Sequence to fold (223 residues):
Amino acid sequence: MSDQTDAAQGQEPPIQVIVVPVTGFQQNCSVIFDRETKRGAVIDPGGDIERIEKTLREHGVEVDKIVLTHGHIDHIGGAADLAERLGVPIVGPHEADRELIDRVEEQARQFGVAGVRRVDPDTWLDEGDTVEIAGRSFQVLHCPGHAPGHVVFFDAELRFLVSGDVVFAGSVGRTDLPGGNHETLIASIRDKLLPLGDDVTFLPGHGPASTLGQERKTNPYLR
Fold:
């Protein structure tokens, strides 16, 4: 996946999505913004914040908030520093990830990652909440399994889902980390994501985008 990937397909949508793969984990930090107003949010700034800031400058994006899908280091490693630099709040994930987030500096030491600071979300999210991103209202779905407090963000009108590490193109999130549970993860996908519709395009936390219909048909973990 290139550093800057426009999620638009066909007719140009009102928002633009730029993917900035960050750190050695190649985590898909995403910048989502309104094409006209240039206001938007950064989702899961896992690190390499200079690269993220460079992307924001190049596209003239004014960031309202940082949004987190879950509390693993590769998704939150740069959140505290970026929020401080931009002067914006941190929103999400679900409070069930508080323990993971509290241990992020310990995670950093385990993975040999320097300069990671603990994150203090300004707002926790729960099932049924909505988050404004780029002037649009995204539904919040609590999808545990990969992490206890993992949330995803869905724009029903645009048929667009930010899925974090719940489901990938051809795979699903790993469940061998603290708080993970494979049966819970599959239930989250089966009961909350797949019913959204086969036409929904999703942007995962790693790797290329896909559609829920494609994964329903071909993903070996969902068949």
Residues 1-9 have pLDDT under 50 and may be disordered. The chain has one domain: 15-218.
